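WARN no homologs supplied; continuing
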Amino acid sequence: MALDGGERALSLLEYGRIVVQRGWIVVLCAALGACAMLFYSSRQDTVYRSTMQVIFEPAQSGQGISAANAALLRSYVVYLSSTGIAGEIVEELGMGISAEALKAGTEISAVPDQSLIRIEVNDANGDWANTVAYAWG
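OK structure emitted
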């Protein structure tokens, strides 16, 4: 069937023939992508995460005091995230790194709904991450 510009429409059989003839290109691209993904993932270092949850129990509880307790919880997070606390942990464990390097692998956050402080330590050694998280908590 001829179209206006002298072009010819392809039938489904012709499309199928093209896919069969050129299907190896799709398979090759998929295989190359799988090989690249395998290479990339094998080159990644394993990083372990140790999580310590510290329960925050305010001295007073009540509806009017909840805002004050939330502010106190946030101030504890700021205190625990300080370079001074990180320096104490480095000295206590004899780590041989700076406090800033220890803080770079640590995340400290508040969970106000549950009155928790979450301390997460990332390290290439899982046992060491547990030790640091326990010392921080």
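The CA atoms of residues 54 and 62 lie 21 Å apart.
OK
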